[in-house]
Each structure stands twice: as C-alpha cells, then as structure tokens.
Amino acid sequence: MTHITVRVDGTTYEDEVEPRLLLVHYLRDRLGLTGTPIGCDTSNCGTCTVDLDGATVKSCSVLAVQADGGEVTTVQGLAKDGEWTALQRAFHEQHGLQCGYCTPGMLMAARDLLRENPHPGSDEVRQALEGNLCRCTGYQNIVRAVLAASGPQASEEATA
Amino acid sequence: MTDQAVEHEIGRSRLRKEDARLVTGQTNWTDNIQVAGLLHLAILRSPMAHARIARIDVSPALERPGVVAAFSGADLAEGLGSLPCAWPVTEDIVLPDHPPIAVDEVRYAGDPVAVVVARDRYTAADALEAVEVDYDPLPPVLDLEAALAEGAPLVHAGKGTNRCYTWPLTTGEDFAAVRERAEVTLRRRYHQQRLIPNAMEPRAVVVTPLAAAGEYTVHSATQIPHILRIMLAVVTGIPEHKLRVIAPDVGGGFGSKLQVYGEEALALTVARRLGRPVKWTESRSEGYLATHHGRGMIQDVEIAATREGRLLGLKVDLIADMGAYLMLVTPGIPLLGAFMYPAIYKMDAYEFTCTGVFTTRTPTDAYRGAGRPEATFAIERTMDELAAELGLDPVEVRRRNWIRHEEFPYTSIAGLTYDSGHYEAATEKALALFGYDDLRAEQHVRNQRNDTVRLGIGVSTFTEMCGLAPSRVLGDLRYAAGGWEAASIRMLPTGKVEVVTGTSPHGQGHETCWSQIAADVLGVPFEDVEVVHGDTKAAPQGMDTYGSRSLVVGGEAVHRAAVKVVEKARKVAAHLLEASERDLEFSEGAFCVKGSPEARRTIQEIAFETFTSHGLPEGIEPSINAETLVDPENFSYPHGTHLCAVEVDTETGKVRIRSYVCVDDVGRVVNPMIVEGQVHGGVAQGIAQALYEEAVYDDQGNLVSGTMADYLVPSAADLPDFVTDRTETPADTNSMGVKGVGEAGTIASTPAVVNAVVDALRPLGVRDVRMPCSPHRIWQALHSARSGGAAGAGAGQSGEPGKETAA
Description:
Number of strands of chain A: 5
Number of domains of chain B: 3
Oligomer: heterodimer
Number of helices of chain A: 6
Largest sheet of chain A: 5 strands, mixed
InterPro entries (chain A): 2Fe-2S-bd (IPR002888), 2Fe-2S-bd_dom_sf (IPR036884), 2Fe-2S_ferredoxin-like_sf (IPR036010), 2Fe-2S_ferredoxin-type (IPR001041), Beta-grasp_dom_sf (IPR012675), Diverse_Oxidoreductases (IPR051452)
Helix content of chain B: 25-40%
Low-confidence stretches of chain B: 1-6, 791-807
Organism (chain A): Streptomyces pluripotens
Keywords (chain A): 2Fe-2S, Iron, Iron-sulfur, Metal-binding, Oxidoreductase
GO molecular function (chain A): 2 iron, 2 sulfur cluster binding; metal ion binding; oxidoreductase activity
CATH topology of the largest domain in chain A: Ubiquitin-like (UB roll)
Shape of chain A: globular
CATH architecture of the largest domain in chain A: Roll
Number of domains of chain A: 2
Pathway (chain A): Alkaloid degradation; nicotine degradation
Strand content of chain B: 15-25%
Radius of gyration of chain A: 15 Å
C-alpha cells in the first residue's frame, strides 16, 4: 500500500492505496465521486476524462499513485457555488447530450480545448474531441455546444 | 381538449429536465451504487467458441484472500432456470435450453463458465485466473449456409439441426408467375454484418437482498425493468412480488439493454445464496463478448419489374444468424423486417422466407431499428440497382412506385395499413435542401474528367413501423406479451403533478416530453410536473422502452391519463362553481363558467379541494388522479427521404461524406430539439454500419474486433454535420398524431450512404461494396472491377455471385 495525498475538486484526501489502483476507481470507489463514469477498458471512449494538474487525462489510464501530490478536477468540480460553467450551460442549451454518459468526459475534453484555443473552428472541435466517443448525439450538437461556449468567458473559466 | 395551452407546450423545444444531473455529475448509474457489505461478482468466460467442459475446479480461487465465494455452472444450476425467449415465432421452432451459465458445454467465446465473488472488483477479477477449466474443443459453426447443410457440426447436438425456424410470408399474386411476365428481373445478395451496439454505459447490475422479507431489489442498466422483473421471477423462482427492479439513470441502450441477461440472473442467484448485496459491472471488452449483437443476416433479394421501372414483385430469402442461443426476442427480429421489405412501394407479388440459424457466436437480438434497417437497406439498394439497370434516375424510379399522398390509408402488400404519409413532399423538400441537380451536374463533370476522387449520390426513401405494438398483432406473431403502455397522473395536494410512466428512458428525454404533454393537457406549468419511471414499485405497470414505442404508446397514455384527470376535475369544479358540467369551459388550466370568467377554479386548486374533501358531495370520489393503459390500434409509420453525397478516393479507398440531408416525417412533434437530436444520433449509427463497424470473427470463432480499439465506433472527427428538416403528416391512429423517431435515422441512413458509395464507383464497373465500406473493401471492389471479376460486383470481398438477368 502506498500513501497518497490528492486534492480533488477542492478537497484534500489522504489515503493508502494499492499501487495498481486506477485513478478512476480511486475517485469512484474510494472517494465516492461517481460523476466520472467508465466506458471502456482500452482508453478509447474518454468518458473518464478528468483534469490532472492542468492536463486532461483519461483516468482509467492513470494510477492513483501518479496523482499523489496533484490536483484533480472532475465534472463535479466544474460548477462554482451551484453556478454552471459556460460549457455546462451550452451542452444543456444546445442539446449536446442525450443519455449523458459521455458528458463528463466531453465537458472535460472541451474545457481543455477552449483553454488552449478559445476560438476553435468546428473542425478543430471535432479533432479535439476525437478521443471521446458518444453514441447518442451524432456529435453535431456537442460541437455546436463547444462553439457556443467558446470565447473569452469560457477560456477564463477553463483556466480558473 | 382543444384549449390554447396545447399550443404552448407540444411543439416547443423545451430544454431537458434530465440535463441538470447529467452535466454536473450527480447521476445515478447502476455502477455508482454502493451499499454496506457489497460484494463484487466477476465472471470467467469461455475462451473458445465451442467446447465441452471436461473439468472445472473453482476451489483454487477460494484460497485467494478477499474471495468470498466461487461457483461453477453446476454449482448454480439448481433452482436456476433457462433464460427466456419470449418470441417463439413458429410452432415448430427449435428452442434450446439457455442456462445463464454453461454447465457442460460452451457455445460461444464469452459463454460464462464460473463466477467469483470478492470484496472488491480487483480481487474478483484476479481470482478468475485461479479457476481451473479443461475444455475438449468442438467444431465451431460459423458459416450460415454451411450450418444448414446435412452433416454440419451442431451448435445444440441434442436438437439434431442448426435450423432454428423457417418463417414464410407470401401475399398477392404468385411471384413465379409475376417473374414470368416481367421485362426485367434483378437478383442481389446483401450481407448485414454483425454489429456491436456500444451503449456508452456498460451493463451493470446490483442486487440487494432484504433477507428477512425474502425480497430483492435489483438495480440494472436495463431498458426493460418491468419485463425483467417478470422474467427474473420465472428464471429464479423468486416470486414476482418479492422482486423490485429499478432502472436508474441508464446510459444508452439501442436495443442491447432490451434483454434479460444471464448476468442479471446470476447476480440475483448469488446474492440469494450468500444473503449479501452483489454487484457485477461489465468491462467493455467483456461486453463485446457477452452483450447481444445486432444484424447478422444474408439477404437474397429478387425483384421483377417493367422496363418503365414499375415494380411487379419482390422475393426475399433471408438467413438470419441467431448466434448460440435465443435471447428475449432473437427469433422475432427478422420478422419485424419481413413486413418492411416492400417499404413505400406498390407491387403485385411478395414472397418472403426467413430461416433462423444457430451459430457458435454471441447471440443476436434487437439493435436500433431491429429488422427494419436490414429490410430498408435491401429494398433501397435494389431500387438503385433497378434504376441503374434501366438507366433511370434513382429518385425517378422511386417516384414511379411509391404510394401517392392521395392513396392513404394504404394497405401494403405485406398487409400493413399505412395511415398517413406524404412521400412526395418529403422528397421534394430533401432534394431542394440537398441541391440534387447541382450535385448530379458536378458528378457528371467529374466522371467525364475521370477524377481520381469520385462523387457519389445516394438516396433512401423509407418508412418504418413504430409504436410497438397492437397486442393482437403481437399475439398473431406469437410474441409472449402485450404491446400496451401504462401511465398515471397523481395530482398532489399542493398542485404539483406526478406523471408515472411505464416507459423506461435511457437518453430519450421522457422526463421532458412527458412533462410537456401533461402540462399541455392540464394547463399547468411545465416546471410543476415531475415524471416517475423505471422502478417497478413506483411505476408498477409498464412494457418499457424499445422500438420507438415510447411516445406513440407511452406518451399517448400520458395524454389520455391527463384528459381523464381533467374530466374528473370537471365534476368537482361543477360542484364548487355551482354550475352544470356542460356550462364549464376548461382553458389554461382552469375551469370557468361560460359567460362568467370570474367564477373560476384552477385544476391545481381542485387538487387541493379534493385532498381536503371538505366540500365534496356524496358520490364524488376524493381524487382527481387517473390512470390508463393504452393498447395502440395500429403501428405508426414515420417516413422520410435521406440523401447523401460522398467523395470516394479511388486511390486510397477512403470515403468522405460531403453532405447529408434528411427530411423526416415523424408526425406531430412534441419537442423539435429532441427530435433533431434523435435523428442526428440515428443517422450517425446508420453511417457507422455503412462505413465503419463490424464484429469480426476468425475461423475459430474468436471475436477479433474485441475491444474499442479494434471496433470502429465513429468519433466526432469521422462524421459531418447533418442537415435535418421535417414534414409533418400527423398519424391518424393516436390522439396526438405522433409517430416516433428513435430509429428513423438509423434505418434510412445506411442505404443512403452505401448507395452513394456505389453510385460514385459505378462508372468504374463497381456494382456493390459490402459493408462496412472500408478503404480496403473499396479498393478490393475497384480491383475486382478493373480485372473484370464477377462483373465488378464487389465479389472479391464477399464471394457474392452478383447474379443478374435482364430479360
């Protein structure tokens, strides 16, 4: 067992974990932060995407021990004081989700895109979301949502 | 019920109520469930397609720290019945036993052979490795036609045949006679490759026993909590009233969760044996083996026509891959298609035969569209082939054959009565949006120039049967349940409204749409309505969600229940307002006396008055709640025209979708935003079949495309923007005029895309490309055409003979 200290969505946790424990299972099973779901076992689907120290990672491909000393943001940490981010609002307003299972990962990947590129074109959005699969929407409204949320405000929120 | 409020909610793009929990991660997926003492169940699966289990020993797994129990199939066999097939389509169908876990023989790679239960999921997964199994290999059964031959190895040896059933449908004139008099006949063979549904949420089940009461709560990522409860009672012998099934938030289904799975029965059985809560969650790779597949058919299609392109007759010989076992509705899937091959066309003769075949592969069952995409593909591909044969425009061939607007209602040769439709209007709108003539002109220029990148244009004009289904029809087809749906409306004392529905959504937005319907009829604010679903205790009656039935049957039930509430409230209002019921008007949620608008009671006030019951006269029951069960009088028949333009690089074989336009007619629309979203997703799934996806097996029956890395679910980068529009021809067979939309996009898009691909390559001698039209397949088809092989029918990759005769 290895001792880790991780800050997740603003709260610091100290735990003893098996070295092989995946970050996503640590979040879900140990911390009860089930907002980040699992969709595959080959890192293809992207539903488990979170932010680790400013980089988006698929949390099924990172060990919990690798997050030691780090800061993780999940979908559950996006809204501040109950106020949704521009991206969350845009996904809602543009009907960018149906079953919603891929949505946490989509939000995290899109947030990362807008942090890097506050004014992407639709092709850039499609390329940026290539690692996140959705089976319900056909992606069109997801792309629309990301474009709707682009601009200075989104960039500010994403880097906050 | 023709008040103004109706115009306010139905037809409005209300943002979804569901979204708040989904965009903030406050969801309730089955795998999220944590209860005290929870154990994790892992399943050891057969690595072979077909083998006898010579020896199995689970005891080494028990020695691992953290392992609580381990069972072989034989250990669990007592009290665990066969998984149900609810659709024995013929009297003489072969119905093999389907044990939830194999006892002596495995019949597909992935068939469960042992379970391990441990304190956490890692320990459980590890301990599987300790289970010892010796297999004696048996020959796999993989080729659908060879499986039917005399002396073929048998999937179920005790049954003496791999033929599951033969189901015929012959209507109109004798096809052979019609063929005799036809000027043109065409024969084509199409392959519907196996598909893996890929709902984003893997399947999961959590069983919590309440030991003292002998009760069990089963949370499952299922589309069908009500059917699951009945079937789990049958399989395990636990009385139905001791089972509560809850489908919490469910992350997509597409038919794959319209199922009663062995894992659900196993988790229940193990929880019962141990008296402890048990969770099983599939990994994606496990799901690829164990969650049912879709499609999997060979279609031989023959048409007879005149030189003017008028269809005279259609003959379809279908071989359908059942897989190793019959799941809930496996045999019935091709029958849903049987009625749809004639599609929107008039003809004199129709002859259909389906032969179901067992193979040593994962069982097949419903996948988005279920039988209807396959049928639509075959007829729409063949209409294009007829157009090519006659040198006619593909749209013109369709015009010459379809049912005209003034001919509705029209009884198709397959015996379905289409209540309403307007194929001309949808097609004209789609052609205009698409810029059909301009694209054809550009195609001509590019062909003349001999461009290496060819332009192809594909059309698909389709109808489908939705709103499953009138119970009497299901009875005629030997389906073992009704097709009704339940709804009730509870008017709460504070004026808020609970709508209880028997449908069980998994992304379709029922909470929003059912709120709109109820708010509309009751004249209450949208926000005042809450929708309760997916829990057999809270919503005790229902037939669940599949086959685009939810709105047409379930939404209709909500509508009718709301009308009942208004009528019950009218009696109370009449008393309170001291007026006769006849003198009351109901508008914007309130009753008032005609001519005296000040004498007014809202339906929400009446809910409170009935709660207190202080002023109700004798004979009026103190409730305006209402419930209803709706059995649809007919299917509904959405239709539409989809057009696709592709660019095919003849050097690389790569297909790029340049534009995609569809005009769907789904009758009256409750929420246009949600309808558009459903069309997008459906079209994406149909394109995926056309271009990307296939469950590939090797010659030993191993699933080669066994992970998401090998099975190409398209990403955002693979798909274009779609142009969607609508025409609106209300259904005549329900009070709202709705038709259903969940499957339309998938049904229509696959032939539109493949027609476009073939259209691009036809000048180069290619007459077919087998799905998925991957770069490799396209390159092969071109290569075969260049070398003159099989008339360039794409025979290189499929072995199809590309038969054709022109009289």
